[in-house]
Design goal:
The chain is α/β, with parallel strands linked by helices. It has helices at 26-38, 49-59, 75-84, 100-109, 121-139, and strands spanning 18-22, 42-46, 63-66, 90-95, 113-116. Helix 2 (49-59) packs parallel to helix 3 and helix 3 runs parallel beside helix 4. The longest helix is centred in the C-terminal third of the chain and has 19 residues, at 121-139.
Amino acid sequence: MNSSFRTDSPLPAVSAYRVLVVDDNLDGATTLSMLLEFSGYQVRSAYDGLAALKAVDEFHPHAIVLDIGLPGLDGYEVARRLRGNQSDVVLIALTGYGQESDRERSRKAGFDHHFVKPTDPRTLCDVLHRSVTSRESSRS
């Protein structure tokens, strides 16, 4: 993995944080999972909406990086179901859908952030880290 994915400023250890990566593109999911593992996160992957919901119940992630265009249940529906269950997991859309209407739909579904593929991995990791640590510190 390329060291350019590292941040310049020291960040608190992330090894206690679990991240679920959901994407029907196996290569994309694998690459992002490797990047996040390299960054210190505990990572699991799922490849469709139903598998994502099952993984949430089993893995209890702090954050989910979720593609919207999934087979079966799309990412919008996964987000709505999670928010309907009062889940406070950090939801990050990572999708090919980048129109303002797509961003509005993701906000309404309950996503905290919306990134369009391809995205800068460093920016994604920084937002993920800030979101998870902020959410966790507000619980304390």
